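can u do me a favor
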């Protein structure tokens, strides 16, 4: 059959291009009469027979997705005026039997591309696969918990002290979740195949299969090229701290928070990578440092007594400094009047809950237990904590000094357009 001759050229291009690229039909002009009806019929027959598949329009030189239906491929092929720009690929059904696959046996994600999977098909992984990069100072690990990237730090790039297979670069990764909102790491095959064989095998050992969907904003930004629709709750949290401090200055007060963490957001301020007691307690400790411990007592000076005086039976007075959460609660009780005080009470309760959770591990010896429930508990806690700092910002917005010159900040933040997954 003549389409077998066409397939041989397509197969050579696919495996020898270096990136599993398609073969443009125009490249076959020196071997076949590509403008003839017969040639077109041969290609169409090869598509119908699952020997070849084709891509038309967009960037046809890469097989972006493997999920395009045969009827859609045929429709696009039939409707194109000139097939010279159509790119041809070996069909996955034919690739199953290719002897060339053996050369990819030690590179699981190169192997997946070699089998005809799409460059932008994604795979999902246990979150714990990110730990080795987050915790290793040789790597720059950045994420807003919608998008992320990993690369070797400049000091270690091409260093004799770091094996070449560990000098990795993952240009982009994202997150995904299932119907129960369990979170996973998501990476497109194109970027997984850039990993060294050793790291490909590490990731393959952590791969998770199932009905798992890409985070909507990761899909929108990486596939549709949009800027995203909402903010990550962790990004929004530190943005709120910054806005609150700006409002504090407009009120003629010292900044409420000592640090906004905008320039140096802690790497572990994000969703847990492993559901253990130790990881959860570390997060609570960090969260309390960003909330209660981060409150600036100077903000309350002149409005409240910063100490309590308690008489003893012998007549002496015990002077003790008030805690920051107590000061926050007293300040709102004295300075902020609202028809419904429930949001303020809920806000103070969130600060207290985080402080209580922080104190508990210090007094109770606890094994480093593994429990998937920590994922859910942490998510509930960060939602409460974010709502708390947002409530402060909304309350400060009513101050006359802020109303006269309201600060400019993200419209998404103002509208509460936040991802909490």
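np, heres the sequence
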């Amino acid at each position: 059959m003549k389409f077998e001759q066409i397939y041989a050229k397509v197969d050579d291009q696919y495996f020898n291009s270096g990136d599993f690229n398609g073969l443009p039909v125009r490249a076959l002009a020196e071997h076949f009469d590509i403008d003839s009806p017969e040639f077109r019929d041969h290609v169409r027959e090869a598509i119908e027979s699952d020997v070849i598949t084709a891509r038309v329009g967009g960037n046809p030189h890469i097989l972006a997705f493997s999920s395009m239906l045969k009827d859609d491929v045929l429709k696009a092929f039939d409707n194109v005026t000139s097939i010279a720009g159509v790119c041809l690929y070996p069909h996955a059904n034919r690739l199953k039997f290719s002897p060339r696959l053996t050369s990819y046996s030690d590179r699981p994600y190169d192997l997946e591309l070699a089998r005809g999977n799409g460059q932008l098909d994604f795979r999902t992984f246990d979150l714990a696969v990110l730990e080795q990069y987050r915790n290793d100072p040789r790597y720059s690990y950045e994420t807003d918990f919608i998008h992320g990237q990993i690369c070797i730090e400049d000091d270690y790039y091409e260093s004799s002290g770091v094996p070449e297979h560990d000098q990795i670069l993952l240009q982009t990764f994202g997150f995904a979740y299932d119907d129960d909102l369990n979170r996973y790491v998501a990476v497109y095959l194109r970027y997984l195949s850039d990993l060294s064989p050793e790291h490909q095998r590490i990731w393959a050992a952590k791969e998770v299969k199932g009905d798992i969907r890409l985070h909507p904003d990761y899909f929108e930004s990486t596939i549709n090229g949009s800027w995203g629709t909402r903010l990550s709750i962790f990004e929004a949290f530190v943005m709120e701290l910054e806005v609150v401090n700006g409002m504090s200055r407009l009120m003629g007060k010292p900044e409420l928070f000592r640090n906004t963490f905008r320039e140096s957001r802690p790497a572990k301020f994000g969703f847990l990578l492993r559901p253990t007691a130790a990881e959860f307690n570390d997060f609570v400790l960090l969260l309390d440092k960003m909330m209660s411990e981060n409150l600036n007592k100077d903000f309350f000076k002149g409005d409240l007594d910063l100490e309590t005086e308690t008489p003893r039976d012998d007549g002496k007075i015990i002077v003790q400094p008030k805690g920051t959460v107590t000061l926050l609660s007293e300040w709102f009780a004295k300075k902020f009047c609202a028809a419904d005080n429930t949001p303020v009470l809920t806000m103070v309760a969130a600060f207290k809950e985080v402080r209580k959770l922080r104190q508990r591990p210090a007094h109770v010896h606890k094994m480093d237990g593994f429990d998937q429930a920590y994922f859910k508990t942490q998510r509930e806690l960060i939602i409460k904590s974010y709502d708390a700092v947002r409530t402060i910002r909304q309350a400060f917005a009513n101050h006359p000094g802020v109303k006269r010159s309201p600060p400019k900040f993200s419209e998404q933040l103002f509208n509460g357009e936040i991802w909490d997954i």
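The first strand starts at residue 23 and ends at 24. hope that helps!!
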